[in-house]
Amino acid sequence: MIKPDGVQRNLIGKIISRLEDKGLKLVAIKFLRLTKEQAAEHYREHAGKEFYERLISLITSAPVVAMVWEGKNAVFIVRKLMGATDPAQADAGSIRGLYGMSMGRNIIHGADSVDSARREISIYFRPEELVSYEKTLETWIYE
Ligand code: DAT
Ligand code: MG
Q1: Which residues participate directly in catalysis (predicted)?
Q2: Do the Cβ atoms of 72 and 114 come closer than 8 Å?
């Protein structure tokens, strides 16, 4: 998900390009403003933490881009492309490393496991909104 700060910073195109250029396949995308309920479900693992209220406030403050990307080890690959949670610690070439300055404005969210990806996808998408298709490029991306 491109968070509100990523959208406001005009980074939608750059972020999508990075995931596309890596070889991941976009299977669903939605531009929306999260409700409090969606935000609470999305970040339920963080409920009660010191930063939770700020996190919910930011993620519901303006529109986001929710996306589903497919590929071999996609969860791991996306986390690598995103970089560490704190942009100050993130690898310099990663999305957070390149574009972020602080933890509370770290541009992008990515699921941290296949289980959380499934759960998060179901918050924003109906199953029929995920598009299954072939890309001819795939033989040049995978052995
Ligand atoms: P990630 O987004 O890398 O999966 P996370 O799940 O630990 O990181 O936390 C979710 C978001 O909450 C994170 O992107 C930014 C915010 N956050 C995490 N730890 C924080 C902290 N110590 N202070 C402020 N915001 C924090
Ligand atoms: Mg997380």
Answers
A1: 109
A2: no
Entry pTM: 0.97
Residue 57, domain CATH: 3.30.70.141
- Number of domains within the chain: 1
- First-to-final CA distance of the chain: 29
pLDDT digits (tens, 9 = 90+) for 79-122: 999 999 999 999 999 999 999 999 999 999 999 999 999 999 99
Given the residues 18, 25, 42, 109, the one annotated as active site: 109
Ligand 1 atom nearest residue 112's Cα: 4
Where b means 16+ CB within 10 Å and e means fewer, 95-123 reads: bbbbbbeebebbbbbbbeeeeebeebbee
Residue 135 domain-assigned (yes or no): no
Q: Structure tokens of 11?
A: 């980074």
Query: Does 137 reside within a domain?
Result: no
Q: What is the amino acid identity at position 123?
A: I
Cα 29 to middle of ligand 1, angstroms: 23
Q: Largest Cα–Cα distance of the chain, in whole Å?
A: 47
109 is catalytic: yes
**Rounded CA gap, 22 and 19, in Å?**
5
